[in-house]
Amino acid sequence: MNWNTSSTFTPIGLALGGQPARKVVRTLGDAAYILIKHWPYNDGEEYVGAVKACVDAISGQIAPEQFREAFLRAAGEAGIATLTVVHQ
Q1: Reduced 3-state DSSP string for 30-64
Q2: In angstroms, rounded to a whole number, what is the distance separating the alpha carbons of residues 17 and 38?
Q3: d(CA 61, CA 22)
Q4: β partners of residue 84
C-alpha cells in the first residue's frame, strides 16, 4: 500500500470550516485522514466516490491523479474551497 505516495499527485489546498481551517493535501494518507476525520458531509455521492477512489489509489488500482479528480469533485459537492498548490 502506498499511503504516502505523492508521485504525480498535485497538492490541493483546502479551506475547511472548523479546525484545522486550512489544510494542504499532499499524499493519499493526508486525503484519507481528511475524508474520514474532517469532511463536513459523509453521505454525498461524490464523497462516497472519493473514498472509494482513495482506497483504489492506495491499493494501486488507479493513479493518484485519478483520485485527485474524485477528491476535487467531492470538495465541490461539499462546498469546500480548493486551490492547486504550485511548487516552483
Answers
A1: HHHHHHHHCCCCCCCHHHHHHHHHHHHHHCCCCCH
A2: 9
A3: 29
A4: 12
pTM of the model: 0.85
Say what the pLDDT of residue 85 is.
73
Amino acid at 57: A
| Grid cell for residue 68 | 485527485
Cα 48 to chain center, whole Å? Answer: 12
Neighbour tally for 11: CB within 10 Å: 16
Over residues 19-69, the pLDDT tens digits come to 667 888 988 999 999 999 989 888 899 999 999 999 999 888 999 999 999
Q: ∠ CA 51-57-61 to the nearest 5 degrees?
A: 120
The DSSP secondary-structure symbol of 17 reads S
Q: Which residues contact 22 (CB under 8 A, 6 or more apart)?
A: 13, 14, 15, 16
